[in-house]
Amino acid sequence: NSTFEDREMFCEIHYMETSIVSDGIQKGYPMEINFALLNSCIVQMKDELLNIINRKTKSYYHDFTFRVCNEIGQRKANNSITIIAYPKSQVDYLLEVLVPETALHLISQDRVNIELKNAKKIMKDSSAF
After folding, report:
1. What is the pTM of this model?
2. pLDDT of res. 70
């Protein structure tokens, strides 16, 4: 006896296998990630990431995070109930800015140094994959 959840999961897996995965393969998305090499790749981009932190290099994610922070700050000033402020800590900055920036740079390297705006499009298009 299969449950509704079982049937739903089967449909999702079938859709992924027949559409998302085949589409990703056609677009050249990697089927496997070599996690053993990942650390050294990230270490090699240390200077680029430090330039983002030090605002020497423009970053969409840095600008977006601080735009949200400013909007929340303005709402907080106008509404005493709002108590959230971003980034709360270095961990938040890491998650909100450096993780997606690292992903962009990794995609750029993987695609033989394509422009970051093109890497961002690939990152968005490949999210389901």
Report:
1. 0.73
2. 78
